[in-house]
Structures are given as structure tokens and as C-alpha cells.
Amino acid sequence: MAPVSTHTPTLQKLLKSLRDQDLETSIEGLIFLLKRRQVRGDQCANATAHILLQVVAKSKWQSVDRLLELVTSAGSRLVQAAPHEPVIGNIVRRVLGLIRDEASEDRNADELSESVSDLQSLAPVAPPPTSAPARPGPTPITRSLTMPAAGLQVSKSMFNLLSVVDTLDSYSTGASTPVSLAQNNSVHALKSEIIDGIGEIIDEVNQADDQIAGFADIHIYPGDYILAVLPSPAVERYLIKAASRRRFTVLVASPHSQGSGAEQYSALRKKLTSAGVKMISLSTTGLMAYMPKVSKVIFGAKAVFQNGGMLVDSGCCLAARAAQEYSKPVIVLCGVYKFCPQDTATHISWTQLENPSSYVGYDDGETVDTIDIENTLAEYLPPEFVDVYVTNLGPQTQDHLGSIMADHYKPEEMSVQLGA
Amino acid sequence: GRRPSFAAEKDARSFIPECFSHIPMAKRVQTSHAHKDVHPAVLAAGQQMATFAIKDSISRLEATLLAFKKVIESYDTPKDTSLSRHFVPHVLNPQIEYLTECRPMCFSMGNAIRLLKAQVNTFDINTPEDEAKEGLLESIDLFIRERINLAGYLIARNASQLVDEDDVVLTYGRHRLVEKTLLRAKENGKNFSVSIIDDPYDKGGLQLAEILQQAGIPISYSPNLGGLGTKVEEATTVLLGGEAIFASGFLQGAAGTADVAIAATKAGTKVIALCETINFDRERISLDALTYNEIDPERNSPESFRLLFDNTPVKYISGVITEFESGTGFSPAQAI
């Protein structure tokens, strides 16, 4: 860990200053932290949601399409800053979905039923959408509708009015488009609804670990030997919660550390020990040796993909393979916000490397020069290694992940391309 | 006095979690506390083993045998007894006890000592002492030549023939036989690359990387087992060195060896184990890595715990190369 001086920007500082500084500075601030990996893992979700909230609150927008565009563009920049953190994309998609939902609710409330049917009857006239999935229902906010076909209809509803305006004027002049007071009020109402919605996403992210911990006593029994691999904050909370109800032993596997002084998980040890649960510290090397004694393996996922495959710290793959060899159950903890609607990832594309200088010193010039050194930080774990996914919505099997994804992301968001 | 060391020993073991408390651990025995009959050469060897200055099974075996030669050379049979009756219980056994106290014996040492004792038993009561000593010294020399030096040479020769042009050979840590094999294959004119996965505690793999790199072999080095799944897929062959093979065919290797073998087998890459036959234990059967193992005395504190070895089940080893098999010396682990 690099020493954090008072001058270095941190996530806490950034979040505190969001209110006062302009939007661009905030976005750049987070991009900077993401690139330097000072914001990583679980923090990314929270940070992204906060920045997108600022985008909604501070940027000038008069149409939903414009807002979607602004959020997509800010989101893409964050995703590009940290392509190794898939949760950023998740949050962006969740916010896009939220905006669409709120907009369509708004419209449904305002609109007379005939204009809805008008709109629907119009749909076939419009050129068939090329990429947007054909979905019945009141949310056809696709480009194809707003382009040539939209010109035919001048509806009184705020949403359609704005889309028309949108297509007539270029985006950059959107702000100067004259809007009536009533429309302004609707925009205000929509804005505050969206901001509330983002607040709910932030709450969901912040509460996920606690909610997951609520399910701790289901899968941990008295007398268990639980192998916790590189315990994430969620795993720590889960173990501590379980320790308040059960007597078991925790084997914590963490990577080799240079100095044998301060222990990485000393706080966890203290809490477990005070609850009467023994903790044994192991390294992530050679986990096969301990597996006969282990009754269950637990770790947190950085992301869960649609097929149930995961992005995990590299030591977790090792543990999962060893657990499978001994038919020991593998429990993965992951908040629903970590579910990635993207297509099945391949392991190569998600393998992340890290600076190997803690293993090979740069003073060893010849070695550093001539030998190809790779230190893997995170990698892809296929779904067949996992028995249960414990989410903030409760324990799930692999078969169930698809329906959770569908509940949280609509096809529109799943197909959004963020980043490069 | 004896007390402090006894207390210290008790203390060291008190950190061991109860579920692993059956597993032995090396410990530093102060030379002043050793049995008075322990020969200085054995004392030195014991210290080197306790501090892991000599650590792999073959180096330990060789150090033991060389020290025993000194013991035999300086041995004088007391009056009214004979070497065949007196040497083992009164001279050899205290040496063995001391060595075991320093660090649990490895299986090759056990095998060699059994052979040595059998050799002593072949002597008649009337065998002259000089003749008996000469016989023992000669057989130890022969043993070192055949079972250690020749075995290493033959295994490297056999295994190097399995390395083909453009192969990517993956190995774990630094094992003497793997090192010999790869250097030999390079001498044979093969062009291949080596992917080394290291044990971050041992860092032997880094030394191996430097040695092989100097021999002109392209190296890719991973300081830990991260990314193993991808690396075994990219490899064409996995070469693993063993410290022992049990009657069940399980391979005892440096902790992490089994993880590599399993990942490789799952990726469809062949796994070849290299092991001298002196390391084979035909009597012991290990169920898993917790049957026969050792606790790392350097990593035995409330904050850390580590076992030195793991066991690779037979099904994850495509073949074992030893010095004795005919042809390539390639055979299934159970067959040995």
C-alpha cells in the first residue's frame, strides 16, 4: 500500500467535493482515481453511481434521449478508465434503465391512452429497427421511432415533444430550445425521480454486503472448516455474522506478503476470535494440501457474467479447482449489482496482470530485462466450479442468474456498448 | 540446561492448529543438546537440514550418507563385541535419532538407512572390522553413484527426449531433475520455451529462470499460481519433480505441485513426474496431503501456517520417469 498523503486525491475527498465542483472536474477526478487503481473493486460501483447522479443533476438536458446520451458518454469514459472493473458498466446500465423506466412512467401518467395507441399504431410504419430488439409494450424509446417517423406525429406528451425537438435540433443546441414552463416542470419532476432512483442504487450497493451477511448461518454449520480465499469485505462480514451464531474454524488464504509483520486480516482475526471462532492464516499457494480438512470454500466475486462465470481474484480459481477435486462446496458472495449482462466472457479476455515488483525486484536488472514476468491478479472462473451464489436477494443457483439479470437489465441496456 | 529448549519447542508447536497437530515439524536442536555420541559430521548435516540449507530429498540423502561415511571411518569396535552387533544400535541409531529430531526424515533417507542396516546384517560376527568398514564405505559410494548420480543422469536423458521442438514446457518451482532435463534438452539442440510457475515462499523458480535463461532458453515466469488455468493451456508439457512417491502412486511434491497437475490435466496438457526410485515408498500409503507432511517452521505462528508438501493423485499424472524403467522410462505411477 502506498502511503496516502493529504495531497493525494481519494474517493472520500472526491465524493465530498462533488457538490461544489463542476461536473467535468468530478468525472475527471474519478477517471484519475480509476486509472491509478486507487478506486477499485467494490468501491467502483458506489463511485460510478455518485458521478452519474451528478451527470443527471448538473448537466443541462431537456429530453430523455439527450440525458441517455449524456449518461452513456460519461459512463463510457469511466468504463474506459477501468475496463477491468465490470461493475462500472453495470451501474451505468442500471442508471440508463432507470432513466428509461422513469421516462416511460412519466409519459404513461401524462399521456392520454389514445396517444399511446397512436404511437403503437405508428410503430409498424417506422422503418424496422436494425439493432433494437422488437419488444411490445410502452417503452419503444428507440432511435428508429424518433428519427423519420417521429416527425409525423406531434404529440402533446412531454416525452414525444422533446424527442421531436431533439431530432430537429442538434444535440448541442438542445439547451437553447425554448420549452414551456409545464415541460420544465416535467423535466424537473423526472430529474428528481431519476436522482431518487440513483440514490436507491447507491443504497443497494452500500447495503449489499450486510444483506448477504444476513444469509450467513444458512450454509455455515457448527464445526465447519471454512476456507476463505482473499476475503473481500463482503466475505469478512459474512464470516463475522456467522461467527455470532456458530462455532467453526476459518482458514484464511491470502497471498504471500514480503514482510512477516503486520497481518493483512488482523482485524478479521480479532473479530472472529472475540466471537470464539478460530482463524488460521494460510497462503494461496498449494491449497490442495489443506483441502481434505476444509468443509467449504468461500470467496467474493468481482463480477458475475450471464452464464454464471465469474471474475475473481486469481487465488480463488486455485481454491475452486482444489475444492472440486475433493467435492467440497464452493460459496460465492456477490451483490446483484455485480451481475454483468454482457455475453459470456472468455478467461483470456478477463485475465488481469499486476505489477510483479513485489516478487522480482527491479534491482535484479538482468532478470527483469530478459525474463518475461507475469503476475496475475484476477482471472475468469467458469460456472461449473460454484455451488451457490449468495446475493443480497438470497442464495441462488446458476440456473437462476438469468432471471435476476432480466429483472435488472432490459434488452436495451444489455446491448448498450460502453467504452471502446 | 535442557529446560529452555524444551519450553521453546513446546512453544513452537503450540501455534500449530489442532487439526494439523499430527504433522511433524523441523526444529533447531542446539548442538550442545545433542546426544553425546552424535558424530560432528552428522551434527553439521543435521543443522543444515533443520535450517533448510539442505532441503530437497536427494541433497538430504547425500549429506546423510556422506556424514555416515565419516561415522564409519571413525568407528572402532569395542572389545568383546563385533561391528555387526554393536554398530547399528549403539552408533548408527543415535545419529539417526538426531537427524530425525532436526527434521523428519524424508523417505529416501529411510530407504537408504534400511539398506545400510541390511548390509551390516550381512556381516558375520567374525568378519574383521576393517573388511566390514571397507565394505560399508564402498557400498555407500556405489549407492551414491548409482541411486543419486546415475539416476539423475538417466532421468534427465529419458525426460529430455520427451521435449520436442517448439514445445512450451511448464514447471513449478525449482526441482533438480527438471532443471537437469531442460538443460539436457537444450544441449540436444531442441528449441523450446519454458514457463515457470513459482512458489512465492521459495522463489526457487526464479533461480531456475535465471539458469535456463543463461542457457538460452526463452522463459516466461509467474511469481505465483495466479493465472495457472491459462498457463497450463498454453503449455504442451508439464514437468514436475517429486520428493516421494507412495505405494498408492501419490506424488509428494512441493506445496502447489498438485494444483499445477490438476489444472494441467483439466486443460488436457500431459503431466510428467520425475522422481528417483530411492524416493519411492512402497510401504506407506497416503490418503491425502495430511497423511505425510511437514509444517514449515518458518511459517508457523499465530499469523501464518504452511505445509511444505502436497500430494498429487495418480489420475493427474500422465506418467512417471524414473531411472529404472526400460525404454523411455515412461510408465504409469501405480505400476512402480
Structural overview:
The complex is a heterodimer of chains A (420) and B (336). With 420 residues, chain A is an alpha/beta fold. Helix content of chain A is 46%, strand content 12%. Chain A has 2 domains: 11-207, no CATH class; 214-410, Translation initiation factor eif-2b, domain 2 (Rossmann fold, 3-Layer(aba) Sandwich), CATH 3.40.50. Chain A is built from 17 helices and 12 strands. Chain A has a 7-stranded mixed sheet. A 4-stranded antiparallel sheet of chain A has the order 5-6-10-8. With 336 residues, chain B is of the alpha/beta class. Chain B folds into 2 domains: 3-151, Four Helix Bundle (Hemerythrin (Met), subunit A); 154-335, Rossmann fold (3-Layer(aba) Sandwich). Chain B is built from 10 helices and 13 strands. In chain B, the strands form 3 sheets. Chain B has a 7-stranded mixed sheet with strand order 3-2-1-4-7-12-13, sandwiched between helices. Chain B has a 4-stranded mixed sheet with strand order 8-5-6-11, sandwiched between helices. Chain B has a two-stranded antiparallel sheet with strand order 9-10. In chain B, strand 1, helix 7 (176-187) and strand 2 (193-197) form a beta-alpha-beta unit. The interface between A and B is large, with 48 and 51 residues. Strand 9 of chain A pairs parallel with strand 3 (219-222) of chain B. Chain A: Residues 125-139 have a biased composition (Pro residues).
Please outline what is shown here:
Helix content of chain A is 46%, strand content 12%.
Structural class of chain A: alpha/beta
Strand content of chain A: 5-15%
In DSSP terms (H or I, runs of 4 or more residues), the helix count of chain B works out at: 10
Radius of gyration of chain B: 21 Å
CATH class of the largest domain in chain B: Alpha Beta
Protein name (chain A): Translation initiation factor eIF2B subunit beta
Main location (chain A): cytoplasm
Region (Disordered) (chain A): 107-144
Keywords (chain A): Cytoplasm, Initiation factor, Protein biosynthesis
